[in-house]
Amino acid sequence: MTNLVDDESAVGTRLSRPPAVLLQYLTLIHYRKSVFEEIAADGRIDFEICCGRESPYADMRNFESGRGLKVKFIRNLILHFSAKHFICWQLGAIFHTIRTRPQVLVLLGLDPHVISCVPHFLVAKMLGIKVLWWSHATLSRQGRLGDAVRLFFYRWADGILAYDDQGAERLAAAGVRARTMTTVWNCINHEDYRLIEERPSRGHPGGTLRLLYVGRMYPLKKMHLLVEAVAHLKGNGVPVLVDVVGTGPSLDDTRQLASCLHVADEIIFHGELYQEQLADFLRAADLGVVPSWAGLSVIQYFAAGLPVITEENRQFNHPPEVSAVIEGETGYYFEFDSAESLAETILRAQANLDELSRGCTRLVSERFRPEIMKDRMIEGVLKVLGTGSGT
Predict the structure, then answer these.
(1) Which SS3 state, helix, strand or coil, does residue 148 take?
(2) What is the residue-averaged pLDDT of the chain?
(3) Which of 185, 199, 196 is nearest to 369 (CA)?
(4) Residues in CB range of 295: below 8 A, 6 or more apart
(5) Contact predicate 372/342, CB 8 Å
(6) Residue 82: which residues within 8 A CB-CB, separation 6 or more?
């Protein structure tokens, strides 16, 4: 009888343990610090990250693990072809999955740069491990073969953690089971939200309009549109000042264009800035402008109560975070590839700054905070295990 009781107790202990969840990631990227710590502190899952120390992205900062965050560091084997094109092989992540046998494996998207993701997926499935893709849920610009391969692995997965509703709807329309998908949204770190409480009123339509661009500068960002729009505004007598925070391959061309169009005094280039230095510019700005490829920076602007203007979304010129720009509520879209439309849209937003700022604040509180993203991700994990929300 004693042995039977002990056996039943052991089974009960195993069943009461939270499910082991392993996340494959490239590195401990700095902007994920808060959400990773939130997940690790939640008792509903036993969370571990498997990642490398070396990032293939030269401009990405990492953070040091702590506060109970379990991390298995492996070697990232990286081969660079250019500043933005590389392949990464994470054999150690596959071996760690085999050794630990988690109940759930979360893979960082079906990324062609990370060539170990497909064998990692296959090994996990052979071991009976539930697999989720944490993904942009995109299908565009892959070609027919690329789309077919992506759809095959999306459909075979046990779940999809999508960054926005549009991505989930896009995959559902392509035949991926809607019940397997969970929208998790996105976020930045806790300390980056403090500015939203400090946002002053922007009711000064007659004063100098301050615009802010924060991010890397490369051709995909279309910085020439911002420079040309400023020249258009200046030519029409509109006082405007643009702070550009960031560096990149397009910096020299952008600076030269500003000089050629006689707006060098209106556009100030500050280089890379972080924390309090960046916060000063977020406080001072009236509008955030991202000419194209508006990604996580949208959330950074919103977290400071700053509305965003960006190019109309044609499903290949933006990451999923652009869906947070809601026309007339949190920002505006200008016509594709049109500097004149950008200038007109800036003036349109100037008359509506306070209302737009309130819309940004409201949307951030509903979707884009670490605690919200944590709950959504855990919900997606527990869904594939059939254990409900766990709350």
Answers:
(1) helix
(2) 91
(3) 185
(4) 318, 319, 321, 322
(5) no
(6) none
As a whole number of angstroms, the distance between CA 129 and CA 196 comes to 41
**At 47, phi and psi to the nearest 5?**
-100, 130
Q: Is residue 23 predicted with pLDDT exceeding 90?
A: yes
In the sheet that holds 287-290, the strands lie side by side as 267-271, 240-245, 209-214, 287-290, 308-311, 331-334
Same domain for 170 and 36, yes or no, is yes
In angstroms, the CA 337 to CA 342 distance is: 9
Query: How far is the CA of 208 from the CAs of 140, 202, 239, 375, in angstroms?
Result: 40, 11, 5, 42
**Confidence (pLDDT) at 14:** 47
Nearest to 83 by CA among 217, 230, 279, 207: 217
User: What is the b/e burial string over 317-347, where b = at least 16 CB atoms within 10 angstroms of the residue's CB?
Assistant: bbbbbbbbbeeebbbbbbeebbbebbbbbbe
Together in a domain, 17 and 161: yes
Tokens of 274: 């972080």
- Does residue 186 or residue 83 have the better pLDDT? 186
Phi-psi region of 65 (alpha: psi -120 to 50; beta: other; left: phi over 0): beta
The structure's pTM equals 0.90
**Co-location of 302 and 197 in the same domain:** yes
| pLDDT mean over 190-194 | 91
CATH number of the CATH domain containing 160: 3.40.50.2000
Least confident of 68-82, 183-197, 291-305, 310-324: 310-324
87 and 107 in contact (C-beta within 8 Å)? Answer: no
Q: With b meaning 16 or more CB within 10 Å and e meaning fewer, what string describes 15-28?
A: eeebbbbbbbbbbb
Q: Domain containing 270: what range?
A: 191-367
Please tell me whether residue 209 adopts helix, strand or coil conformation.
strand
Of the given ranges (115-119, 197-201, 328-332), which has the lowest mean pLDDT? 197-201
| Tens-place pLDDT, residues 37-58 | 999 999 999 999 999 999 998 7
Positive or negative, the Cα torsion across 360, 366, 371, 372? negative
